[in-house]
Amino acid sequence: MTADLTDRTDFDDADRGFIGKLIPGVVKTADGRVVWDIDEFADLVQGDAPATVNPSLWRQSKLTSKQGLYEVTAGIYQVRDLDMSNMTLVEGDTGVIVIDPLISAECAAAAIALYRQHRGDRPVTAVIYTHAHLDHFGGVLGVVDADTQVPIVAPEHFLEHAVSENVYAGSAMLRRSVYYAGVPLQTSATGRVGLGLGAGGSTGTYGLIAPTLDINRTGQEEVLDGVRIVFQLTPGTESPAEMNFFFPDHRALCLAENATHNLHNLLTLRGAQIRDPRIWSHYISEAIHLYADDTDVAFASHHWPTWGRENIVTFLKEQRDLYCYLHDQTLRLINQGLTGPECAEAIQMPPALDARWHTHGYYGSVSHNVKAIYQRYIGWYDGNPAHLWLHPPTAAATRYVQVIGGVDATVGKAREFFDQGDLRFAAELASHAVFAEPENVAAKDLLANILEQLGFGAENATWRNAYLTGAQELRAGVQPTPMTASAGMAPAMTTTQLFDSIAIRINGPRAWDTALSISWNLPDIGESHHMELSNGALIHFRTERSPKADLTVTLTRPQLLGLLFAGTTQGIDMSGDSTALPRLLALTDEADPSFPIVTP
Ligand SMILES: [Zn+2]
């Protein structure tokens, strides 16, 4: 750690403008289930870092525990740490504009109630989504009704990306997010100490209202409730659909999630498509160029604001350089022949950047971001044909263990490396032992102990969570994840995405010998789709004139959702071979919501 632990600037900024907080800092559902408890977290992160938490992460956790309503500048307020993200409130002529209504409706309702308690009972006159991630729109039904007439403003292609990022690999991402968020862990000095980006995510009800006003160019100016806003589109940065925006009359700049007080993820550990650090850096640079001269305060949808033109320019230039440096240096080394892990090991941040807290990897990390850049340009194959056709984990582990002299000998060797402090290699060896003999308690215990120590040392909150969740699952097995009943995202999916969600569940081998075709008519939304199954592949496309099919299904879009998600066929008109649809659905598999990760 090279940044200065005695520098209090971030703490002063995080406290600045404090108005009041929710007491107690607990949010519940109507039936009493706790969906957010910031008090437990704030109580934990008092005093000096315990030996079981990296001091730099501990510091960040203190900063992300400061719940309350804060004045950013006259007319602009933020509710922070009533969820993972910030809700920003901008007062207009007749009411208040809400920027980013948190993850869940319960937290969003609590946040706006806190605001109104101190600023009066102003109606919501517009909602702005800065980008297409759940923690920036999911709680919208907590601030407006589903049939609201107020403008819902978002960057172009918002809806497509809000849905698509989580559609196809959604189940696997959900399972992996248990690790990166540390879902089964207790909030404690030996468990979860936040997420770096915030204290954690709320677990209430989420939903989505589609945008009614698209922002489709930089320089677009809108007046919402009398407030002038100039937009900067930043597609392909932290989200495929994202935007910064400037309030000229407030001299305030909203940076969405493009510049926050940590090194962000280029590839989140839950899995995602990799983001583009080159374009990210470019848009931060553009924001400096367009707005910095006229800005007195810059705020984002996570963490605390930065005040003062000079501080803002310094902060933005460092964030800009951070992503640029990672991108350019990774490519420089790739072109010298280094592979992903080698680049990740070789790249060190410039000391001047490393000396600044906001460049540290509490959420993203230099190590996994560099590997992500390698993945973006080069892919999984490192070019060495010895690695082209490796055995998968269990087959490899069995062979390694055999060569080492059995599972007990492997565990013994792993313990030696553990005792010498080489936790990385100790984990690799112990994992081979577990994959070769998953019931071996000594192997699992040792691996759990190694992962735990790796977690205690990690500056990155998601690494800590991953290590400690792995340790917990080795000791106690996979715990079922409590699922929340939510309005969810299905209503926002296109028909093509809905049909894709069937296609990716077709069990190929079982479907090898089945051929069928279905014509789908959805008169209420004016769509027809043709679908056919052959060779285990489900092909479908939108068409004006459907080719002849075994079965023709005519239904409304709500009926299609009912059919796919609840198996309801009531009121659906079918003509032709009525066995085609049940035969198709019988060939689908369900995703496994709790597949093993640290064991085979
Ligand atoms: Zn976010």
Quick structural overview:
The chain is an alpha+beta fold and 600 residues long.
Commentary on this structure:
The chain is an alpha+beta fold. 37% of the residues lie in helices and 16% in strands. It contains 20 helices and 21 strands. The strands form 4 sheets. The protein has an 8-stranded mixed beta sheet, with helices on one face. A 6-stranded mixed beta sheet has the order 11-12-13-14-15-16. A 5-stranded mixed beta sheet has the order 19-18-17-20-21. Helix 14 runs antiparallel to helix 15. The longest helix has 26 residues, at 309-334. The chain is globular and about 70 Å long. The two termini are 36 Å apart. The mean pLDDT is 95. The site of zinc ion has 7 residues, from loops.
Radius of gyration: 26 Å
Spatial ordering of strands, largest sheet: 1-4-5-6-7-8-9-10
Strand content: 15-25%
Rough outline: globular
Number of strands: 21
Portion of residues in helices? 25-40%
Structural class: alpha+beta
Q: If helices are DSSP runs of H or I spanning 4 or more residues, what is the number of helices?
A: 20
